[in-house]
Design goal:
This protein has helices at about 20-25, 60-65, 130-145, 155-170, and strands at about 5-15, 35-40, 45-50, 70-80, 95-100, 100-110, 175-180, 185-190, 195, 200, 205-210, 235-240, 250, 255-260, 265-270. With about 270 residues, it is of the alpha+beta class.
């Protein structure tokens, strides 16, 4: 399966993760090699790096592991292709502009029938590639377009309500684990994924780890995926699977969380248990 990883932090930090190690942690060693991408927020815009290649052995991945930009918020994805050819347009994360901000989306799961689903029509947004994930992002952007019609940042309640409704519609089709950010807040929705122990799809679809760093001299934790800046105090990681032996917490099936600067702002449970 595809693998997701996001970082939100109170002070600028650098992702130092190895994408091919992340894939092996997810039980997908040797299969998740159809592309990778990382979006590093820099204010309202992002520095986006993507390749339709395996992360292992990539000179660009090696460069980002040591020289990647510091950021308060990053979203990454490694791909196991199930829809669409192996190509750059089908490589996540996907980005679009709305309200003067760059919006970023990454999804894990299959959404059969999304092209004919009336509640998930892409509207004025059009996919560049052939994946169900990009179609879902375009449908989300179409819904967000009305919410972002004013210059002011939409309220947290309005954004969460819209995303919860969107997640409900995705779950009706298939696994709907996703990461979404609007430059202000990171949102994550956990659903279900293939579990290595059973081989069947089930929760959790995402895991979360929050850190409060008491020391300014905390060394980089390359396995956990973040190099701590000298002044960092709080960071939160969300991943498809736990990346180390720290106290990762699973997201409940259908749970939606909002994170800003390493702090968990809100969490919403699904309306119904599937």
């Amino acid at each position: 399966m595809c693998e997701l990883l996001a970082l939100s932090t109170s002070q600028p930090a650098r992702l130092t993760f190895s994408l091919h190690i992340l894939a092996s942690r997810g039980g997908a060693a040797g299969t998740t090699h159809d592309g990778w991408g990382v979006a590093f927020y820099q204010g309202k815009d992002v520095a986006l790096f993507r390749e339709p290649l395996a992360a292992e052995g990539s000179p660009l991945v090696n460069y980002l592991e040591t020289q990647g930009p510091s950021t308060h918020l990053a979203i990454s994805h490694i791909r196991h292709a199930t829809q669409g050819e192996v190509s750059l347009p089908n490589t996540q994360p996907f980005v679009r502009e709305l309200g003067g901000r760059t919006h970023v989306f990454a999804h894990n799961g299959d959404l059969p029938g999304i092209e004919s689903c009336k509640t998930l029509a892409p509207g004025i947004y059009r996919p560049v590639g052939q994946t169900d994930s990009e179609h879902a992002f375009c449908a989300l952007m179409e819904r967000l377009r009305t919410l972002w019609s004013e210059d002011a940042l939409p309220s947290m309640d309005a954004r969460l309500s819209l995303l919860a409704s969107f997640a409900d519609d995705l779950r009706a089709l298939g696994p709907a684990n996703f990461l979404y950010a609007d430059g202000d807040t990171l949102f994550a929705h956990g659903h279900k994924r293939l579990q290595s122990g059973t081989g069947h799809a089930g929760p959790p679809g995402l895991w979360m780890l929050q850190r409060h760093c008491a020391s300014a001299d905390t060394p980089p934790d390359h396995q956990a995926g973040v190099a701590v800046a000298q002044e960092e105090r709080v960071s939160l990681l969300i991943a498809s699977v736990p990346l180390n032996n720290e106290d990762w917490k699973p997201l409940a099936e259908g749970e939606l969380v909002a994170v800003r600067h390493g702090e968990l702002l809100e969490r919403r449970a699904a309306k119904t248990t599937e």
